[in-house]
Design a protein that fits this description.
Chain lengths: 304, 304
């Protein structure tokens, strides 16, 4: 029998990362392709997974970690379908329908759930039973993983849109969210920072005032995550979080909000081991996608 | 073989409800006892479960839904132990240690997780895969149940202490929480309402201004629950929620905060079927405790 190979897709807004791994997780083949429309991009994806296994083994499953919004309920008739997106040619696109001809088990989840799964498996959240991974970039999103399973309710979580304490005397900016104006994403994502301060945090001559403001909004999310999910660790990644001083400021602001209520998050005032940067960098998403593929195989075998 | 009987304990701050049920859930014996110290109350509990089964069958398991804070991690060496509480004689009290001599499987969770489980099983959340049950009384707490399992991270959730948007111009009250001052519980629980308005919501001559204010704080929680747990339904119970007009105001305030972002929570501007009152009233806790007992039996059998 040919060696089983794991397929992984990280479907991003600007590029797709395609990877083929052996059972030990070593990459056998990898390709990056631009995200065009589904009708243009998905045939390239099919071609990769049809041709790349040749000589290495046999494709056994594919996991997909994709931009959304996305139907991630395996019991839903539209599982694996991108619902409504402004991205041309992707509304209603179904990863399941596109990939079905490959004849292998498939599992689809969001990009942030994939990254959370990757970090929990082998990154900064390794060993955590409950891990919350938040990305702060063009948008803000959080994936929560429990026992290496991404959590969800009627849909994936939408942490970017939580209400935060917006003191307009201190920060008169109205916010950029087309739905809420000054929700978390409207005030603290990359575009909102540039709209107020004219630059990204890491490019400012004196980022201190902006870091103080943005860390407070992000701490409202961190505090809500602690109180509503009680994760063993919070990972904060994405472009905005690379700004010097932002993670330490987020720790201080979160400790201030918790105010000693959660005993073990009080001893270390900067929460150094609790709020951390990603361990896998840009590899979190594809690592999580590969784990989704392994879970798809395990589920197929359990059902057999 | 004697008929198996299900034991259920709802351990409240002022009273314990003890129940013995047959396999169909019919109550065979029930007793209420005052909550004194553990050393006074627990022997009464043991006596009930030792004597009440006589002539009806044989005790098969006990489920406990208790006030907290409580260690609810079955893998912890202090599982089922009340951690630190101002309640005299209960800090460090272990339900497991007290009940072990009865020789039956035990399962312990918080009162609000028990009520959430009861409502999900046969109350207002029946049929929901993910149900969030919030109680608003002397304190505020939320239990989230997924597939009839209470969810938790490193500990049970603590929704009462989330930060909320506190506009001091509109509401100059400092809040009553000894940790945070103006967290949700500090501003919106029963004692905070009486401290500001001199009375409970349902006893005020004109409750409208207070209802408008309190519903806004509770809507901050409801919105966070929607975005961070995506429950199929939100149940809001407890003494404060019985005030006329509060549930409809909470629906309106939550719809205003979501602002159409979650498509299916937009069609009905008052979210009539999404934010609801409990279906089991005061029976939710004991119903959930009995289900915990049934789950303890199922886990014992699965491990055998």
């Amino acid at each position: 029998m040919a060696k089983p190979l794991i397929g992984a897709i990280e479907a991003g807004g600007t590029k797709f990362v395609l990877a083929l791994m052996d059972e030990a997780g070593r990459i056998v083949a990898e390709q990056r392709i631009a995200t065009l429309t589904a009708a243009e991009t998905m045939p390239e994806v099919i071609r990769f997974f049809s041709e790349a296994p040749s000589g290495h083994g046999e494709l056994a499953a594919i996991g997909v970690a994709s931009f959304g919004p996305l139907d991630i309920d395996p019991a839903s008739p539209t599982y694996g379908t991108i619902t409504t997106t402004p991205k041309p040619g992707w509304s209603g696109a179904s990863f399941i329908d596109w990939l079905r001809p490959l004849g292998v088990p498939l599992k689809v989840d969001t990009d942030v759930n994939g990254a959370a799964l990757g970090e929990a498996l082998s990154g900064a959240g390794k060993g955590c039973r409950t891990l919350a991974y938040t990305t702060v970039g063009t948008g803000i999103g959080t994936g929560v993983v429990r026992d290496l399973r991404p959590m969800a309710g009627f849909s994936h979580y939408e942490s970017g849109h939580i209400p935060v304490a917006h003191d307009r005397a201190r920060d008169p900016f109205d916010g950029l969210c087309p739905y809420h104006g000054d929700c978390l994403e409207g005030l603290a994502a990359g575009p909102a920072i540039r709209a107020r301060f004219g630059d990204s945090l890491d490019a400012m001559a004196d980022p201190a005032p902006a870091v103080a403001l943005i860390s407070g909004y992000l701490a409202d999310l961190a505090t809500n995550l602690v109180l509503l999910h009680a994760p063993d660790r919070l990972v904060f990644g994405g472009g905005v979080m690379k700004a010097p001083g932002l993670i330490p400021a987020l720790r201080r602001e979160t400790a201030r909000r918790l105010a000693g209520y959660v005993a073990h998050l009080h001893d270390d005032p900067e929460l150094e081991h609790y709020i951390v940067s990603p361990g896998l960098g840009d590899e979190a998403g594809i690592t999580g996608a590969a784990e989704l593929a392994r879970q798809a195989i395990a589920q197929r075998d359990a059902a057999a």
